[in-house]
Amino acid sequence: MHMHDSLKESGRFKYFEKGEGTPLIILHGLMGGLSNFDGVANHFPSLGYKVIIPMLPIYDLPLLKTNVKEFAHYLRDFITFLGHEKVVLIGNSLGGHIGLLHTKLFPEKVSGLLITGSSGLYENAMGESYPKRENYEYIKKKTEDVFYNPDVATKEVVDDVFKTVNDRKKLIKILTIAKSAIRHNMAKDLPAITTPIGIVWGKQDAVTPPNVGDEFHRLLPNSTLYWIDQCGHAPMMEHPDTFNQYLTDWLVANNL
C-alpha cells in the first residue's frame, strides 16, 4: 500500500499521480485498493503517460448517493478538477462499470476506455452479504476465488478484505453499491457507445465469467477483446506484464 504514502489531496479528491503526458485515469474495484494497479503505475509513466488513480468515495457518500451513477458524476468532477480536456479511463470490476457509465454520460471527456472484469452486464457474488464474515478462513477462500492463482491473495490482500467486511458501516456501503451495480445494467446503453473500448478478460474469471467479456465485445461497436489465460477477475494483478502489453497495443492501435 505504498501508494497511500504519496496521495495528493485537494478538497474531496484524494489520488495518486505519477509521470507526465496523456492522462490515464485508473478506476479501482469495490474491494480493490490502489495498489492493485502497481504494475500499470510503474510501467506507463516511462512511455509518456501520466497515471492517475483516484480513491473512489466508496465509503464517503451518504447512503442515498452510494451508487454507480453518483460515482460517474464524481469522476466527471474529478476530471474537471484536473483540468484535462480528454482522458483515457481504465477500470477493473466496479471501476469498469463506472467508466462505462461515465463514457455514456460524458463521451466528450473520454478518448478511450479499457475495462477488465467489469460489472455492468452480469456479476456473480459481488453482492453477497458475507454470511460468515467473522470467519477468517472463509474470507481467505472467498478472496482467493477472485484469482486463478490463489497465491495472488497475499496476507495483506486478505487482511484488507477481512477488515473491510467486518466494519459494519463499510459492509452496508458495499452491499448498497453491489445492488446498485446489478440494478444499473447497461446492456441497452452499450451499442450507442462509439468511444474506443479495450476489453481485457481472464479466461478463468469466476466473478464476471468469460461470456460476459464476449457479451461486452458483441454489444460495444468499437471494441477490441483480449484474453489472458490462467487468469481470474483482476488481470492487472495476476498478469501485470501481459496486461500492460495489451493495454499498450490497444493505446497504440487507437492513437491514444
Outline the low-pLDDT stretches: none
Main sheet strand line-up:
1-2-4-3-5-6-7-8
Query: Under the CATH scheme, which class?
Result: Alpha Beta
H-E string: EEEHEHEHEHHHEHEHH
Question: How does this structure look, described?
Answer:
With 256 residues, the protein is α/β, with parallel strands linked by helices. It has one domain: Rossmann fold, CATH 3.40.50. The protein contains nine helices and eight strands. The chain has helices spanning 38-43, 68-82, 94-105, 136-144, 155-165, 168-183, 210-219, 235-238, 240-253; strands spanning 8-10, 13-18, 22-27, 49-54, 87-92, 110-116, 197-202, 223-228. An eight-stranded mixed β-sheet has the order 1-2-4-3-5-6-7-8, sandwiched between helices. Helix 1 (38-43) links the parallel strand 3 and strand 4. Helix 2 (68-82) packs across helix 3 and helix 4 crosses helix 5. The radius of gyration is 17 Å and the shape is globular. The mean pLDDT is 94.
Q: Descriptors for this entry?
A:
globular; 256 residues; alpha/beta; 8 strands; Rossmann fold; single chain
Please outline the helices and strands:
Blueprint: E1 8-10, E2 13-18, E3 22-27, H1 38-43, E4 49-54, H2 68-82, E5 87-92, H3 94-105, E6 110-116, H4 136-144, H5 155-165, H6 168-183, E7 197-202, H7 210-219, E8 223-228, H8 235-238, H9 240-253
Parallel strand pairs: 3-4, 3-5, 5-6, 6-7, 7-8
Antiparallel strand pairs: 1-2, 2-4
Helix pairs in contact: 2-3, 4-5
